[in-house]
TrEMBL record:
Keywords: Activator, Nucleus, rRNA processing, Transcription, Transcription regulation. Its main location: nucleus. It holds the Pfam family Nol11_C. This is NOL11 protein. Residues 398-714 form the Nucleolar protein 11 C-terminal domain. The keyword rRNA processing applies. It is found in: Nucleus, Nucleolus.
Length: 714
């Protein structure tokens, strides 16, 4: 079985007018599974944190130059490596700002691709088929590079593997309609060449994917006819010279008319493959889909229609699929499990549902709603409400039927048998979403029906998402149920930016007195400080005194502190009550994309913006103290989240804030704070070289409890 979860946009595309150009060269893994390196088909390289949908760093070549292959991360040094204008190697680190000043080396031949390996030197594949390790290439950049390929032979695809700590590079080429495959070993330096049968009738391979297992490479090739073929490449062939590589048909896609031109394939886990740019049935017409197929049973497991059309680009990294379509790069998490024949046949029966979207469940709606599959109870079922049989818990159809016409007070009694079922059951997850949607529909149709306790229990299961019940959060705001809204923000991983901003506006508008009777989770706030409790005298290793505008020295002490002129005003008190503070902290911790959030932030009034900025100022002061180096509470926002929201508010309302007299003092404090921080970092930059030299000093012997060392710095 396999499932596609709800996707989200990572970034926009600078796509050209042609459907052949998405504006993207490639995506490579970053420092951890949550980081990716996105290379534009032009001048830019950007590192993204996927979960936050935010860029961590971006570099661009100057006008007239171009990055010609996807940038990769050097696994040993932590540096980024890219190729500019086909022959110029560029190497840089996260802290490098100006791309023109980073290391460069001009090579003697044009590069096709760079492949990174986790614990070894990256491999450089030249356009004429030669392969070099990066360190050997940097030792002599102008070294002669042999031509492996014949005239007019062009590299179409390449991939690298690690076998017994030795690197392998596999790449395919095309010449006059004929396809060839090359396997390059480096230690020892051995090259194997294979020829691949053509399919005939003008069909040609358009995408490749490969996996290594048991000393054999399994290559899967998608042809323009819609056929997926499998080829087995041995790492130790018994015959020397060019060999013929037979292929076997693995899957035939339902291509009704014409041929595929913008499609791509990638291998997944447990006998599954993902294909983009092809229909999943002959009846879907010209629409483009992302599909997951089971290759063992040749069955469709999940599919997602792609708005705006696909470009035939697909990448897989850390359980997520990255696909370009329309004007965006979309990330879709997925999951694959070992499939049985029974599960595959069950999928064949699901003809009415073409798309599996990512709600927290992975099964087809119809498989649960129209089949009499009972949910398994958590315990032996003593005292549990049942129908038709004392040993079976109710099906979803039965639960939905029982909910019709009951009052708000009776809903919990009806749902108790269902809520007692195992929460890890796929049927439970799917049924939970369906029951929630039905309850929300009734709440919207009948203003007098609002089972608050049941809705809170459903949200606390952790099995719901905004995409599976889109009206949940907005209903909570409409009913002024701030506790339920807080639960949804805590539990839903995919709250849209528009809904997040609606929650922020509601939280800022509600009076603290109105929140007194409301039950709010205060885990993210401190119960000690509040109005009347100042933070004076608590500092985090630095003085809040501002640097003199014309001076270069950092003032470390001051006989008197002008609290009114500093952003770090240690006498600040919280401008909102505890409960409103807890609600606002949930907003600060939410995931968002800046480009999608900024337009909605402009809907806030100037009074709301100033109040929120004062609260953010207060939080920053709290996080800057020696005692409070980290805000108390498991759900407290981080300093980075606080400052990101300060920047967002200023971007969205800078003109309005300048014109508002009540914001003048706040903006002045912020300006002085930023100025002092810039100068502080400037001073730290002056001693950066000294600190690096100190780090290189090796201790030759163990030092006792006390010693005096003289270190000479040149």
């Amino acid at each position: 079985m396999a499932a596609l979860y709800e996707g989200f946009t990572l970034c926009g595309l600078a796509a050209g007018k042609s459907r052949e150009n998405s504006g993207l060269l490639g995506i490579e893994p970053g420092r951890d599974p949550d980081h990716v390196i996105v290379t534009g088909a032009g001048r830019t390289v950007t590192v993204y944190k996927v979960s936050d949908q935010k860029p961590l760093g971006s570099w661009a070549a100057k006008q007239g130059q171009a990055v010609t292959c996807p940038a990769v991360l050097h696994g040993q040094t932590g540096e980024y490596v890219a190729v500019q204008d086909s022959k110029v190697l560029r190497i840089w680190r996260d802290e490098d700002i100006n791309f023109e000043k980073v290391f460069k080396a001009t090579l003697s031949a044009a590069v096709s691709r760079i492949h990174a390996l986790p614990s070894l030197e990256p491999l450089v594949l030249f356009q004429r088929g030669a392969v070099r390790q990066l360190d050997a290439l940097l030792a002599a950049p102008q070294q002669a590079v042999e031509e492996v390929l014949s005239e007019d032979e062009v590299i179409r695809w390449s991939s690298c593997f690690l076998e017994a700590e030795q690197p392998l590079l596999l790449f395919s080429t095309e010449k006059s309609g004929e396809c060839f495959l090359y396997l390059q070993k480096l230690k020892p330096n051995v090259l194997h060449k294979y020829s691949i049968d053509s399919e005939g009738k003008g069909a040609c391979p358009i995408s490749f994917t490969a996996t290594l297992e048991n000393k054999c490479i399994t290559l899967m090739c998608l042809y323009s006819s819609g056929c997926v073929y499998k080829l087995l490449v041995s790492l130790h062939p018994s015959v020397e010279g060019e060999q013929h590589l037979p292929k076997s048909l693995l899957l035939k896609l339902p291509v009704s008319e014409g041929v595929l031109s913008r499609a791509a394939i990638t291998s997944l886990e447990e006998g599954h493959i993902a294909i983009v740019g092809s229909p999943h049935s002959a009846s879907t017409g010209d629409r483009d889909f992302l599909c997951i197929w089971n290759t063992n049973f040749q069955t469709l497991q999940a599919s997602k229609e792609l708005a705006g059309g696909a470009y035939g680009q697909l990448w897989c990294n850390a359980g997520k699929l990255y696909v370009t379509h329309g004007k965006v790069l979309t990330v879709l998490p997925y999951r694959c499990e070992m499939s049985s024949l029974a599960a595959a046949l069950g999928k064949l029966k699901q003809t009415s549902t073409q798309e599996v979207t990512l709600s927290p469940s992975e099964l087809n709606w119809n498989s649960l709603l129209h089949e009499e599959t009972a949910l398994q109870p958590r315990t032996g079922g003593a005292g549990m409400r049942t129908r038709n049989s004392a040993t079976l818990s109710p099906t979803i159809n039965q639960v939905l039927e029982d909910l019709k016409g009951v009052s708000s007070e009776e809903v919990e009694e009806v749902l108790e048998p269902f809520l007692s079922c195992s929460p890890v059951s796929p049927q439970f997850q799917l049924g939970l979403s369906h029951i929630t949607v039905e309850l929300l529909k009734r709440c919207q149709a009948d203003p007098g029906f609002y089972p608050q306790t049941v809705l809170a229990r459903l949200a606390q299961t952790g099995r719901l998402s905004h995409s599976s019940c889109p009206g949940f959060l907005m209903l909570a705001l409409e009913k002024r149920d701030y506790f339920l809204a807080q639960l949804c923000l805590q539990q839903f991983p995919d709250v849209p930016e528009a809904v997040t901003c609606a929650c922020l506006k509601a939280f800022l508008s509600v009076a603290d007195a109105d929140l007194v009777p409301v039950n709010v989770d205060l885990e993210g706030v401190s119960l000690v400080d509040g109005p009347g409790h100042s933070l004076e005298g608590v500092q985090n290793g630095f003085s809040p005194v501002l640097l003199e505008e014309d001076g270069c020295d950092v003032q470390l002490t001051a006989p008197k502190l002008d609290q009114s002129s500093s952003w770090i005003d240690m006498s600040l008190t919280r401008p909102v009550g505890l409960k409103k503070s807890a609600l606002l902290n949930e907003i600060l911790r939410s995931s968002y994309s800046e480009s999608f959030l900024l337009p909605h932030l402009k809907d806030l009034s100037s009074r709301q913006v100033i109040l929120f900025l004062r609260y953010l100022q207060y939080l920053y002061v709290r996080s800057s103290g020696d005692v409070y180096t980290q805000l108390p509470g498991l759900r407290a926002p981080t300093v980075t989240q606080i400052m990101d929201w300060v920047s967002l508010l200023l971007d969205a309302h800078f003109t309005v804030l300048i014109m508002a007299p009540e914001a003048k003092g706040l903006l002045t404090q912020l300006h002085r704070f930023v100025r002092s921080q810039v100068r502080l970092y400037s001073e730290l930059g002056k001693i950066q070289g000294t600190l690096q030299e100190l780090g290189k000093i090796n201790k030759e012997q163990e030092i006792g409890l006390y010693s005096i060392e003289v270190i000479e710095l040149f």
